[in-house]
Automatic annotation (TrEMBL):
Keyword vocabulary terms for this entry: Amino-acid biosynthesis, Metal-binding, Methionine biosynthesis, Methyltransferase, Repeat, Transferase, Zinc
Note accompanying the cofactor annotation: Binds 1 zinc ion per subunit.
Pathway: Amino-acid biosynthesis; L-methionine biosynthesis via de novo pathway; L-methionine from L-homocysteine (MetE route): step 1/1
Protein name: 5-methyltetrahydropteroyltriglutamate--homocysteine methyltransferase
Amino acid sequence: MAVPTVTTSHPNKLKTANLGFPRMGQQRELKFALEGFWSGKRSAEDLALTAKTLRAEHWLLQRAAGIDFIPSNDFSLYDQVLDALVLIGATPERFGAGPVTLDRYFAMARNSQEQTAMEMTKWFDTNYHYLVPEWSAGITFQVDTTKILCEVREARALGIETRPVLIGPLTLLLLGKGVDGLDRLTLLPKAITAYREVLAQLNAECVDWVQIDEPILATDLPDGAADAFRTAYAALTKSPVKLMLTTYFDAIGDNLPLAVSLGTAGIHVDTVRAPEQLTPVVAALNATQVLSVGCVEGRNIWLTNFSHASSLLSAAVAALGAHRVIVAPSSSLLHVPQNLRGESKLPARLRGWLRFAEEKIAEVVALASFDSDAGAANAVAIADREAAETTVNPAVRSQLAALVASDFSRAIPYADRTAIQRAELGLPLFPTTTIGSFPQTANVRKHRAAHKHGHETTEEYEAFLRSAIEDCVRQQESIGLDVLVHGEFERNDMVEYFAAFLDGFTFTENGWVQSYGSRCVKPPIIYGDVARPEPMTVKWTEYARSLTSRPMKGMLTGPITILQWSFVRNDIPRQQTAWQIALALRDEVRDLEAAGIRIIQVDEPALREGLPLRRADWDRYLGWAVDAFKLATSGVDNATQIHTHMCYCEFDDILPSIAALDADVISMETARSQMELLEAFRAYGYPNEIGPGVYDIHSPRVPGTAEMTRLLDLALQVLKPEQIWVNPDCGLKTRGWDETMHALRNMCQAALHLRSSSQVM
Ligand code: GLN
Ligand code: ZN
């Protein structure tokens, strides 16, 4: 592949920026420091020192790599949104007032016996979770720049001038929830005053540029937001501090005229998710605005195609001049692991296609200098990836190409299936079941670790699993549950377990990414076509079935959840990968059925997470996502009952798609919201069976029978008795056995009450 000709036309290196660096540390030092502090084993000074050391390391390595605009205030002890609230002094009133101490900071972030923490939700469509601001009418704003100024000074002491990162006022307001229905934008005047004060203090500190993140501009703005943007930035741009208005994760789209009109000194756009926006953005900029081109993907682990990125940069330079173009990652690098040095086991060829945070920074620098050696090396790596036979599985490709409409639907409609299934399964009214996992005790984890590290033979480990399954079955029988499960003791994680069986997936040793607080995940990497060489769950499910005369439910993770919680390939559409996973699961479902499992649950908690940021793109996604589920589940006999399970979020607005899954039974998280969700199911006229969770599994609290009966009565007001299943909100893996037994007994009692008082009996 030819080296881009722009090499000679831009002898001057472009300026480079980074938008945020992963903060955990190569060895997850921050995680261990935090957890040590929380458990009382490490002092606050110790935690502060670890944090300071990490920040220094990260700044120094960015400088050494040649980044011009190095971020500060991208570091956080827990969450950058919480930090933003502390900065403007708008933390929720229920945690007290005055300067935020370390204890109060963590009280807002983490549940304790005394107090429920702030709510957590996903940061746009990433797997990072932020703490949701609580906007109440009386909230006061009290600026506290301690953290941000401290970071600016710390870096300066190392000889590094940084570009501090702020979450912009509109993104911060709109990502929060209005308490008691408060219109969040009514707080705008207070927010503007606070942000002006922050900028004034940064100016006094001689800060030149600030990165002001407004990713909300890449979404459909609610009413009033555009005006609020204009009002806010008319005030903020009065500051001598230059603002880099930063957007990411999607195109600015119809918000482009607004974004440009705000008059910030620069704009950052994501040209990985939305390369087509470069031309309109360049055309729209005013005569002095600087453009930061996010052309190295900040949230996935693949190498950049330099030829594509360079042509975008060349187009920007041709229109604006080199002095007005900055090269950057598309978003903060928070969403990728720190570096590839920690990986000794990755296949060498695959490794050549991967770039983690540090390697991405090197890409930014190489792109900015139009370095011909780097360009040539990149072209070789890109060509190698394109040519690799290991990523293509011809059998899978032809299977996909041969799919027909009937592969995506059950043979007969639910209304006809249900009678057959009732006869087959012989279940009572209000059948009781669980969501799959039973307590993953220290003992279970100990055996898994011993097996993983070779201290326990496979025979020993499997003997242990069989005994755990047998215990679990006996306990469920003694509780009186109607549909049993094997307990999922063999699974460490609902995605990793399956990924380990599937072709096309690989794992890192140290590829940790922050999920929230000190919690990190190590997502599998999907690098090639997905196929299932052998059954994944049949052995354990079949064993469990052999132990009891009651129906045994098989448990699988759905195609969208496996897709969403992995790093996905970027060389084929996500839809194709989802359908490949679905085909693998379809074989698993059929094998379970052949082994005598007549109820199979395919969990899709992440269905909603995959939604694009813009409404206009929802239908396309939902179409192929629903098809993936149906492809996985529709290959069974009419008498085989398909369940699904969803949790973590609201589903009201995607109900038609949930109905389109055509699962015979869906279990959902509803206990904490007092069955609120069911009203939507009623209004929609949801036809199939539903198991609304009757107890919250997130706490050790054991709900009484009366409480669960009351919830079921609420359900009965909106659903037909034949539609209702009785189950907890989610899996029980984080609970202890005692509380689990107690709660499930109460739950079965509640079902018995309902049966005896039900007129339909
Ligand atoms: N079957 C899984 C379990 O019970 C479901 C987990 C989930 O919904 N997150 O653990
Ligand atoms: Zn769940």
